[in-house]
User: Fold these one by one.
Assistant:
Number 1:
Amino acid sequence: MDQKGFTLIELLVVVAIIGVLAAVGAVAFSGFMKNSKKTVADRQCHQVIKEIRTLWQGCDAGIPLYLRNDWGDLDTNSDWCTHTQNNFTMVQEWESHFRDVYLNPYFANETGDVRQALRESCSRPDDMKPGCIQIQVSNSYQSAVQGSDPYWYFTCYNLDQNDNLTTYEDKILGIVH
């Protein structure tokens, strides 16, 4: 009698091979996701700083600076190159402007405020800081009195290869109001 088909042993071997491949794939995928979050956080940090630097340089060239408001609309009533609001308000406006542009790669699937990458403060527990880009400004009144230039300070938080919290800091010349 000629029987065609697979034996139980052959099927078990195939299932075992598929299980091993799935386990190896899951570990590799996890490592890939961890590395991609680090890369995205690093690139976003540099991109935000570059964009804000470019927008400030546009002010020097006479190009108006319009930002998106909390509702996502471009506010063409306020040229931030000449606006009289204080710099604290300006930091909040940058945060609103980039709200839906840069999401924190470590918390992009979360809900609420933690999803935002650019923030006026990253003062939360260290396990919540990766991917956060903190923007602060020097006291513009004090800078004007002392004759020094106002700087916008950026602190970008990320994880290193050993998952330790690291920071990258940069500053750009801003505008005094």
Number 2:
Amino acid sequence: MTRPGPPRGRSNAGKDAITVELAAVIVAVASDGPRVLVRQLDTSRPAALPSGPLEPRHRTLEAGLRTWVEEQTGYDLGYVEQLYSFGDANRHASARAQPGRMLSIGYLALVHESKPHGMDESEWRSWYEFFPWEDWRTGAPAILSTVRDGIAGWIAEAPRDERKSREERARVAFGVAGEHWNEELALERYELLYEIGLVPEAHRDGAACWAPREAAIMEADSLQADHRRILATAISRLRGKIKYRPVVFELMPPRFTFLALQRAVEALAGVELHKANFRRLVEHQGLVEDTGAMSSKTGGRPARLLRFRREVLLERSASGVGLPPVRRSATPQRPR
């Protein structure tokens, strides 16, 4: 005799349930570099990005994200774009601890930095606290030698038929053996470090990796769940996008100097730009116009105040600031 099963659509409800998390990478540019808004609810655990589950009350995914961000940080977001959906099974410890499946949808939001309204658990942090090897503005980061040493050990212990593949991945991602450093590969670099086991969350998540737990790089801060992966995705997206879309102006005040614009682009890209080349590139693309006003807050001679020409959005589809040849140095940075 066949025993009747539970009503259709209700079997294994907990086991088969899919939870959708909406997570926001909220970016601002301060005088000392790019910042990301995080929440620190428990000092015994890593910080987290503003996030929350998709609920029936949310009309759309983006509306749900905006609701959670406003409730948790007080921010009414302006510019928002969807980054990526993270849905791999067992991709982090907190996902494995729950029944069913968790799908995380990451978003990038660009704002002007201000104090979160009445939200003591929210704070601005430099994104280079989480990715110190990404900051080349004053030369090769000091931490890079530690990173490359770990990668070299992973390559050296590779089976003979796999060694060449590992060498190529390291060369492309981290610029070893004289390879060009590609600032857009922030996500690929993080994924490689996770796979090797050089970031602590790989061990926290129980991932199969080469390096032992004590070899993980502790000079960089982590984030809860896979929020550091989502942040790395945002960094890669933004670094690529500033070259062909004028998104950097979403982070600028209504009026700014050329130097302030250059510093913002350098902060986001993590590189130092040639001043004259950058100025020529921006002027050639017609991205800014003179306001007729001057700024005396430059520490030197007064500088012209500019504004973004929004008409450029209608004039052509590709209108980013681009990146002229950058100044690079193989000398490690001094501790910042």
Number 3:
Amino acid sequence: MKRGRVAVVGSYNLGITYRVSHLPVWGETLAGQSARFDHGGKGSNQAVACARLGAYTSFVGCVGMDPAGHSARQLLAAEGIDMGALETLEGYATGVGSIFLDDAGENAIVIDLGANAQLTPQALAARSHAPWRTADVVLAQWEVPWDTVQCAFQEAAGLTLLNPAPACREMAHADLVGVDILTPNATEARLLAGLDPASPISDREVLQRLRDRTQVPRIILTRGPAGSLIWDGEQAWSVPALPVLAVDSTGAGDVFNGVLAAALSQGTPFMDAVCLGSAAASLSVEVPGVIPAIPAAELIHRRARDIKPQSAHLD
């Protein structure tokens, strides 16, 4: 198996996790059980997951000239991630994410993009090191500007994989031409399909609407412990998650996307890569935090053998 090359165009955020008895409602003040500072940001989480599965990984992003930015570089260096396209900006703070985690392992997150918002198309064009042009897979999210992601995808020689998170109503009409693989969760899929995020229609109907609306060749609708629904370009599949005891679901989607991208870069067949991503995401919720919870490649490969995709019919 080849090592594979992945370029992650994305965000780094300092993560502040508050452990609470329940997720707060508007106007409520809670006494937290604990607070923890961690590495975060969808881009950096996904990059570490890529690297741990064995792909040569490059991170394309922006951090501030502050302690959090220095910490980001230490993390990426420790994971063997190429930082030639990571820019440190004076005058901008590194992004921050505040995570509220309840006793059931569910979470709510508020982010401030900070330096991540400065990853503009102009900033991308000015980089002398452009790994997105040569990578086997280019992976991106929506914690950096969408027009920047589009520029990277247009210049990509390999597969393009978009994790459309965080999604909002304004992105329902986003032009997804150039996206090879789309990986929304159930809420994001509804928004992209032009539906209310709480719409009661089935996930299968959502997947069908999203397929018809976006024309993206392959779509993976992730559903947490319910596994994933897949459109592989020809037919639909249901891929289960592993049965686990959830402790912290934060970042499970990032782990899924990072492992999926790495596996595809290594030449793994699409559905096998999905099973690897599902196994990794399932295992990650058993451990608190995001980076510490990303499982080792050997464990991911071994547990993925327990996942059996089944043919599914769309509504």
Number 4:
Amino acid sequence: MGYKTILTVITSEDQQVQLDAAIDVTRREDAHLEVFCLGVDHSQAGYYYAGASAYVFQETIDRAMASAQDLETKVRDRLSAEDIRWSVDSAVAQVGGLTTLIGMRARYSDLVVLTRPYGETAPADAVAVTEAALFEGSAPVLIVPDTGLPADFGQTVMIAWNQSEEAMTAVRRARPILAAANKVEITVVDPSPDGPEGADPGAALAQMLDRHGIRVDVAVLARTQTLVSDIIDRRAEEIGANLIVMGAYGHSRFREAILGGATRNMLAKSRIPVLMAR
């Protein structure tokens, strides 16, 4: 079972790396690429205040419509030369309506390809788009770094395993990639001896994957750095991983936004593609 419907959401002309990655994954999977071009109205016209002018609201909507149509035209021109199956659609939404709109699209997709939602080069609405795909769409999301997908993408995969429901969901959703990989490592950071896997963390997952014909190694690492995300990143570089598979938002989004967390840190800093699900 592979990925047959790939979705990517474009809100800015600067997302060429993301679009290229989506095309590459679509070709690799012999899938259908759906590109959703979105014009975002940031005026929050759904809220009225005394003295507000309807003309101002209409102008921002018109600007968002023009942006969406321009994006759709450019994406169609880009895809017309590609040897893949594709479709392009566009829409306009207010910031408050992004979640439902993108969630409905992501729900019927096998994989969503997006760019990093944090950092200086991130599109303005990337955080809302990513969280909508994960939470409302319940879809696996492939986060592409600024450098794009490596040429050997998916050949060496690291599973960041913490025995959580989110991590298991990510592994299940990543199975087509895991099955095609040359090397897969289950990486466990500072496991609790009182955890459900006891003294052999990662063994049950390794057995499950082995029964699917996926041979894996298990690495148990001590917590030598403050941030788990830093340990994951360092280990991925050590083994030459070109994809990290991990669960997303084991804590609430609010907690991660205020206190930080592995999900937010990986989305902000990782130079390696990350496949997340929850």
